[in-house]
Every structure is written in structure tokens, then in C-alpha cells.
Structure to design on (73 residues):
């Protein structure tokens, strides 16, 4: 599965346009991220590209962690 688009409003005066592509796979009915690609047109440095590959991604077995006891260990 893939979604792509661009930000309608720039998050900074230094950026002209921000575009992205996010790739996912479905595992046991859950959308798991595989890759995020971003391309930014900057006002000062020109074009900048960032790709993040997700590896060794695991899904919790369904047991919720007891965050209330996190400080007691």
C-alpha cells in the first residue's frame, strides 16, 4: 500500500514545497510502515531528499504495557 502527497502549507519560510511518499505492507490486518520518502525544495540549499527505511519492525503481541509502574522498577 502507498500514500503520497504534498503539504499544502509550508511549515517554514525556508521551505518552498514538501512532498512525500509513504509505503506500507499489511501484516495480519495491520498497516506496517516500510519506507518514507520526502523531497523538500528549500529556499537556500535547493532540493533536499530524505528516505527512511523501516527494518526489524515488530508488532506488540497485544499485551499493553503497564506504564503506571514504569518508574517503580
Amino acid at each position: 500500500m502507498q500514500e503520497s502527497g504534498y503539504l499544502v502549507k509550508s511549515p517554514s519560510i525556508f521551505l518552498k514545497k514538501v512532498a512525500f511518499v509513504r509505503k506500507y505492507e499489511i501484516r495480519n490486518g495491520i498497516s506496517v510502515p516500510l519506507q518514507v520518502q520526502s523531497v523538500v525544495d528549500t529556499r537556500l540549499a535547493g532540493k533536499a531528499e530524505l528516505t527512511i527505511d523501516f527494518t526489524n519492525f515488530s508488532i506488540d503481541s497485544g499485551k499493553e504495557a503497564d506504564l503506571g509502574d514504569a518508574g517503580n522498577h
Notes: Residues 14 and 43 are 5 Å apart (CA to CA). The two ends are 40 Å apart (CA to CA).
